[in-house]
Amino acid sequence: MSNTKVVLLGTGTPNCEPHRYQNSSAIIVNDQPYIIDCGGGTIQRISEAENQGVTALHDSKLTRIFLTHLHPDHVVGLADFIIAPWVKTRTSPVQIYGPVGTKNMVEHLLRAFQIGIGEHQYGLAALDTPLELEVYEFEEGFVYEDGNVYVESFRVQHGGLDAFGLRFISDDKTIVHSGDTCALPVMADAAKGCDILIHEVYCKASLDQRDEGWKKYHSTAHTSTVELAEIANKAQPGLLILNHYMTWGFHSDEYLLKEITDLYNGRVVLGQDLEVYE
């Protein structure tokens, strides 16, 4: 029987906030972490979580990462994730899974940081271990499998980007991550009866106060509280974690939560950075 937990590393958005780093989560199965997305501050949050007792997030174990889409607030921390643990204690190759475009992005990151990487590898305090990466681009369907977890993807809709939700299946839990997406029927299907659904959301009353351009964008690229409540009522997850939530300062986070709980009676929490769910 495996031991599966979720650690919220960053619950934020492109709108930077001091208490919410950009988007990233960790699913830990049998003490092995699987990172989902890598926004700004991810490595700092990983270090904080380890310091708070999540020992599975040690640098040496940061070898699996999955990207839902390539918006900067979900990938801008990737160079840090690739390099910093390697400089400290990681000796195994890093496996990076993402949509089409991931290989090109990683190649350019390595070029951008080649001087610093070279100094670490060949300089005065040269590292014995080369920086090794394995990059895999996925479509809808099977993504990854090992002795702990089976991972599959399903296509979602987030503007014009190639975007996916992810479903992690271990011996004791099924965890579904929406990535960034508008409301789609596939989400309720993918999350049907899952133990934990991690889903992005925006406050409907707050969007009503924005201009027409932003209303058009967010209503077609993201999921409202009302829409998410409908998805949750159909899927009935054991726990719904609100992630990447947006109010743009018009309403409190608690108001956003209430918009959902007024329509959905299941267990739902407003995700906060560094929270752990088992």
Ranges where pLDDT stays below 50 over 5 or more residues in a row are: none
Query: What is the approximate shape?
Result: globular
CATH class: Alpha Beta
Q: What does the radius of gyration come to? A: 18 Å
Overall average pLDDT:
96
Helix run count: 10
Name given to the CATH architecture: 4-Layer Sandwich
Structural write-up:
The chain is α/β, with parallel strands linked by helices. It has a single domain, classed as Ribonuclease Z/Hydroxyacylglutathione hydrolase-like (Metallo-beta-lactamase, Chain A), CATH 3.60.15. Helices cover 31% and strands 26% of the residues. The chain has helices spanning 42-51, 72-75, 78-88, 102-112, 114-122, 185-190, 204-207, 212-221, 225-235, 253-261; strands at 4-10, 24-29, 32-36, 64-66, 94-98, 133-137, 141-145, 150-155, 164-169, 174-177, 196-202, 239-246, 268-270, 276-277. The strands form 2 sheets. A 7-stranded mixed β-sheet has the order 6-5-4-3-2-1-14, with helices on one face. It has a 7-stranded mixed β-sheet with strand order 7-8-9-10-11-12-13. α9 crosses α10. The longest helix has 11 residues, at 78-88. The mean pLDDT is 96.
